[in-house]
DNA sequence: TCAAAAGTGTTTCCACTACACCCATGA
DNA sequence: TCATGGGTGTAGTGGAAACACTTTTGA
């Protein structure tokens, strides 16, 4: 059974980032257009080879800073290893993929061959990068429900309706501003800053500004069900 | 900034499995005692080098089958890549770690240097394997709440109280049999088999047997909160 | 005074917990 | 008939959704 298996003593390893941001009501990802074959003119995720003295997380942060000038990443987490032997043509390369988030108010300066693309309308992607983007989107959507990860997409200060747009774009369905406010407030995630915004020309009550109380990801709903007993024993 | 980074053209990659099982009320993991340095006599996770023509998941399943005769793994999922440059002494090796589950009724034949250990009382572990085991346990506990992953720990047929023991061991706190039954029933995860067990010598009502309706992992509670609107629009 | 946008009060619903109670068996 | 373990009925609680209503502004 094992006779056909020849262990690789060594093989290449790259790191890839699905950098997500919300802008103008849609969730978008940072892609880079390949100039050369293979897969010339297809769009691929930023990243590159793992360095000798860095772990995968340091590596992806370094490469983002170097290659696409994204230094203000507000959240980074590993997605998975992509390891199909034929995932890229030529010598085998494993990839560790990351989900990275950038707050919606930032506009990092991008190299000319790099651009944001709406996740709902991806261009032709290279290799397995399309699948990685979908994994990233799904991970983000899941975590929007049971963590405070929204902080990583939001600007430092925001109104509830701005936050509603942001959550709606990330989740892919319309969120109620009323209920969003209460859900986050119940969990103690929101702090009023005391500031308000001027209403638009059409009038309306000025909106209060808020900030997120935490600036690191925290699981806010560890037990959807099967909570530990509050007191005494059960059953 | 990048001048100090010398990309590895190639480096070694291993796969490691945290194989978990519930037995006698405790969650345990399969470990293998290292005979040789480095870290001789410490306990390590089963696994080995990635083969040339396999992806990481095929690799871990192959290695489990070959090395520790665990062929009846009911669930496999990637945990993470462990990539600290000094995670093992000597030439650098990246590791992709897996969570694997074995149903509680199975007793795979083990090589002499391999044994189960309660996760709450781990022996001295090698390299970063202790951290990997904890990650596996945490992942399992989280998924017990919002997926049907219990199916992978349970025998094909079980009573509710047996299932209660199993969930309690996996979660680390006492679960109510009454509520466990209802939570799983509400989600349509349980099917009565029609069989009953004989009561013990001390009497008692015979217990009905159940099975899990699904034998693959399914997310049963995608939205702890912020559910999509059932009908009409919101806000 | 009206329209628009923000924010609050309140109702309804439902899932989960907790616990009392009933059921079926062995001795 | 009693002890024992299995199983069900049901009240209470709390979080979330939905929606009506109030507040605050510009025109």
From TrEMBL, chains A, B:
The keyword Hydrolase applies. It comes from the Bacteria. This is NUDIX hydrolase. Coiled coil: none annotated. The keyword Hydrolase applies. Keywords: Hydrolase. GO terms for molecular function: hydrolase activity. Residues 11-140 form the Nudix hydrolase domain.
